[in-house]
User: What shape does this take?
Amino acid sequence: MLRGVFCENPQLQTPTRVSWEECLACAATWNNPCSLPYPLLQAIYDDAQTPHSFPSVTSLAGCLRKAWLMQTTDYYEYPSGRIALLLGSFAHAILEHANGDALAEIKVKYTTPAGVVVHGTADLYVPATRTLMDWKTAKDIYLKRLPYGTHTTQVNLYAFMLRHNELEARVPVENLVMCYISKSGPDTKKGEHNGVAQVPIDMWDEERARGYLHKRAWAISQAMRGELAPDKVKERWQCSYCPVVQGCEAIRD
Assistant: This one.
């Protein structure tokens, strides 16, 4: 669980753990040695405290070892490391302005045959074209590298869960699109994009999506019962950005 933060005082030579309360109290003096003002730290704190159901689509599509450790061990992060997540939350607030018949922020739930309940929130569904759109913010957009990371997996799992949703009316999904919003704005050098890129995503067939979801949900449920630690992510570059990497490395595989 995220128990607190590492103090961002530049004079500190080693990572120093402080509670959220201590961090916010320091910022409230308006004389804190770090460059993060109180309103930003408060927003980061509020965003970090938002409850999330587990397991979620995002957790199953990403590194299972990371998802498991973040649920079962105490860890700390630098507040600045969560700014990207905060900006992502701001971008998703745009979906509240969806017009017409478009459905935004659809809650989805699916129970596997093994009894694992998976939750998630599908970003935007357009009934007229039966299109599911997932929104992501990115520091930069490189069209030739899109879609990034596990995004193809995520949107395909959302499509599967929309077709089998246990919370709201099930909807048919025939098209998948990732909508990327660049934090650095339009591409002024090559002019390849205006700050936004919509990328069509290949849709998995029903059996592939079902098999992937069932396998990953079962693996995380085993870990939560203390039976078997999930595998590490294959794309090891992700470990450089992981807040629980030390706990992960301490596990004997």
User: Anything to note?
Assistant: DSSP finds eight helices and eight strands in the chain.
